[in-house]
Amino acid sequence: MKLSIIIPVFNEEKTIREVLNKVNDVNIAGVEKEIIVVDDGSTDTTALEIQNLKLKIKNLKFFHHAKNLGKGSAVRTGIKNAAGDYIIIQDADLEYDPNDIKKLVGFVKNNTSGVVYGTRLRRLPNFNRDERTLGFLLHYLGNKFLSFLTSILYGQWITDMETGYKLFSRSVVKDMKLNSKRFDFEPEITAKILKKGIRIIEVPITTNPRGYNEGKKLNTFRDGTIALWTLFKYRFLD
């Protein structure tokens, strides 16, 4: 089994080296890895950091967008150039622990599912850590609402539609037309997977959320509204 790990990156000079080293250190029995990094028009030293690591990390592919097009565009570039039987998306900000990739791959190998999501939200709010500020709490509630709406609209219970950890077989997306350029990638691919009648398995994971002062780019209200429209659009109009 070959696994393509797609890492979309935009201005992550502080974390990209650690993320790539951690991903490179993940060893899964019987799985060959390729790491695909897509720099989405970074204006800091991110691209230089990646180029330096490219000399040291085996099976690292590097693609560069001349200007910032959005996470969805970066992921689509990664998918187009992926050679793996399975594909997983790894954010470059250290919120997600690359060691959890083993969990998701384990469910694919043992349950013959084409799609596995790492869920952060099969739990109550954690006011001491994850939901320690009002902004994080609103983010949690927004994600819970969008996941509940996804479940109602598409007929399968999903606890974390917006998760960054999505593992899927390349055959699932081979003929799938993906249009999203930004964070609307998450609801679009989920909607299209569920409309195909493919069951999504969810595996609990833990994350270390970073604040906006640390570089977090998602806007709860703006991107949440776009996600809401995307779910309705692909359910009833497209």
Describe this protein with a few key phrases.
238 residues; alpha/beta; Spore Coat Polysaccharide Biosynthesis Protein SpsA, Chain A; 39% helix; globular
Give a quick rundown of the structure.
With 238 residues, the protein is α/β, with parallel strands linked by helices. Helix content is 39%, strand content 17%. Helix 1 links the parallel strand 1 and strand 2.
CATH architecture: Alpha-Beta Complex
Approximately what portion of the residues adopt beta-strand conformation? 15-25%
What about the largest sheet? 7 strands, mixed
Q: What is the count of helical runs?
A: 8
Ends apart, CA distance between termini:
33 Å
Biggest sheet, spatial arrangement of strands: 3-2-1-4-6-5-7
The tally of domains stands at 1
Low-confidence stretches: none
Overall geometric form: globular
Per DSSP E runs of 2 or more residues, the count of β-strands stands at: 7
Radius of gyration: 17 Å
Order of helices and strands: EHEHEHEHEHEHHEH
Mean pLDDT: 89
Structural class by helix and strand composition: alpha/beta
- Helical content band: 25-40%
CATH structural class: Alpha Beta
Give the name of the CATH superfamily.
Spore Coat Polysaccharide Biosynthesis Protein SpsA, Chain A
CATH topology descriptor? Spore Coat Polysaccharide Biosynthesis Protein SpsA, Chain A
